[in-house]
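Input record, target 12 of the design panel.
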């Protein structure tokens, strides 16, 4: 069974909504599907704000959200990567988190973001390691700016995409991640 990653558009919301409800429930939030759907419809096809979801056999099994951060001192376009979520039955077994993170960084580069910032809970070691491993595998920079915040420098990927037009399509595929992990000496 293969995992595909897609940028969420309005026509994909029906597939995403059960996973959003699960994530909200897991976070202890009251699930209001009407309000939630309205919110996600306003984001879909927005341009700067977007979500990427992982899909297996037509079912969403993971997602990530991205919002633009206000103009910071070091860059005009910074993406805030948040709410990384993988359904409990798929956590840690198929690389879904890595797939959606790779896809989201790739989409950020396509949209001209120079940096991406992500954060996680201090005790979430798998998520903390994921940012560092993905930066290494994708050839982008990663700097821990606080114990739970990571700043990803996407400029090396953007520069490479200018030299190699197929580069972003190549790195967005889950097969690349498995090949990179399988290389001797590759960080898994």
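The sequence produced for target 12 reads:
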């Amino acid at each position: 069974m293969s995992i595909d990653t897609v940028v969420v558009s309005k026509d994909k919301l029906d597939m995403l909504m059960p996973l959003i409800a699960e994530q909200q429930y897991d976070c202890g939030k009251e699930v209001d599907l009407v309000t939630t759907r309205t919110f996600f419809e306003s984001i879909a096809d927005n341009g700067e704000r977007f979500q990427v979801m992982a899909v297996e056999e037509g079912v969403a099994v993971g997602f990530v959200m991205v919002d633009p951060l206000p103009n910071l001192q070091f860059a005009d376009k910074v993406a805030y990567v948040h709410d990384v979520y993988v359904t409990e039955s798929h956590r840690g077994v198929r690389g879904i988190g890595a797939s959606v993170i790779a896809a989201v960084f790739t989409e950020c580069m396509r949209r001209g973001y120079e940096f991406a910032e992500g954060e996680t809970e201090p005790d979430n070691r798998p998520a903390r390691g994921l940012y560092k491993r993905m930066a290494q595998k994708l050839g982008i920079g990663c700097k821990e700016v606080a114990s739970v915040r990571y700043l990803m420098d996407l400029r090396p990927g953007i520069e490479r995409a200018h030299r190699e037009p197929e580069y972003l399509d190549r790195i967005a595929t889950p097969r690349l991640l498995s090949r990179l992990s399988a290389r001797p000496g590759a960080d898994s």
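Residues 96-110 form the longest helix (15 residues).
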